[in-house]
Amino acid sequence: MKKHLKLLILYFKRIFILSLNRKKQDMIAWKQLKQLHADSGWKSGIYESEKQIVTSFDIGNTEAVKFGYSIENREFHCRLNIVENYLVEMTTDLFILAAHFNNLLNKGKVEIDVADRIVSYNYRCDLLVPLLYSGEFFDRMLMHHSTSKDIYWAFTKLINDNEEPAIIIADLLNKIKGEEIK
């Protein structure tokens, strides 16, 4: 009986959230995202006016980078700047590597801002899914972080080792295939 009551309460909660206007849904999602960061104990910078949270997570062997999370235009955004201030001579190879990733990625997109010379990995999802289902913000952040590691590794190989984009992607696919076999 208790289980049925909990399911009924959850059902009505979801209906209530769906009945709210977009602004109120954004406010609830923003509150949930801030609560996730507060409960986790992550060191985060919270920027209320932009509805953005910046958190540092490890991504390489010894590297911590800043991930950005925000609620904007009815979407949950995850962002990581993979490369900042790259050499202009590397632009073509960066675009080739980004195109390889964008052909492989199911979720998210590697984007290049030529004006600011930034390569970023961005993931966006409709706000309703994480808003309605407990744990979805965390799951989406985890997926973004996991994929970011591979993208960061690949672009680091390109910039530091001057490896060819096609070889980097082949090495990455072999690395992933090896992890799946184990």
Main attributes of the structure:
182 residues; alpha+beta; Yope Regulator, Chain: A; six-stranded antiparallel beta sheet; 6 helices; 6 strands; 24% strand
Describe the structure.
Helices cover 54% and strands 24% of the residues. Helix 3 packs antiparallel against helix 5 (136-161), helix 3 packs parallel to helix 6 (165-181) and helix 5 crosses helix 6 (165-181). It starts with a helix and ends with a helix. It has a single domain (2-181), classed as Yope Regulator, Chain: A, CATH 3.30.1460. The protein is α+β, with helices and mostly antiparallel strands and 182 residues long. It is built from six helices and six strands; from the N terminus they run ααββββαββααα. It has a six-stranded antiparallel sheet with strand order 1-2-3-4-6-5. The model has no long low-confidence stretch (mean pLDDT 90).
Break the fold down into its secondary structure elements and pairings.
Blueprint: H1 2-19, H2 22-40, E1 44-47, E2 52-58, E3 64-72, E4 75-84, H3 91-104, E5 109-113, E6 118-126, H4 128-132, H5 136-161, H6 165-181
Antiparallel strand pairs: 1-2, 2-3, 3-4, 4-6, 5-6
Helix pairs in contact: 3-5, 3-6, 5-6
